[in-house]
Write a structure and sequence with these properties.
Shape: flat
Strand order of the largest sheet: 1-2
Number of helices: 2
Oligomer: single chain
Largest sheet: 2 strands, antiparallel
Radius of gyration: 25 Å
Low-confidence stretches: none
Strand content: 5-15%
Number of strands: 2
Number of domains: 1
Mean pLDDT: 79
Helix content: 55-70%
């Protein structure tokens, strides 16, 4: 009896995969980027090369800062673990 439910689920899945999907950026002419300063910038869907260069540099700087913070947190956790193990042993 469970065969019919399985077949119906397969048919529904095939129908859902066949439909035309819309992305977030297809239906909107503008999208909002929040900056670190707290203000919002409105950029058009087709940004100029200067705007793209500025966005790339901001993202690179933000990613570099996030990597440095992650490394510092890992080092602090490792040194804390070593300290705890040292205190337990001696």
């Amino acid at each position: 009896m469970s065969f019919a439910g399985t077949v119906q689920a397969m048919i529904t899945s095939i129908k859902n995969n066949a439909r035309d999907r819309k992305t977030l950026y297809d239906s909107k002419d503008l999208y909002i980027l929040k900056s670190d300063d707290g203000f919002e910038e409105l950029l058009k869907k087709h940004a100029t090369p200067e705007q793209l260069c500025e966005i790339r540099s901001k993202l690179k700087r933000r990613n570099r800062i996030n990597k440095i913070i992650a490394i510092i947190v890992c080092l602090l956790m490792f040194s804390g673990a070593v300290f705890i193990v040292y205190r337990i042993m001696f």
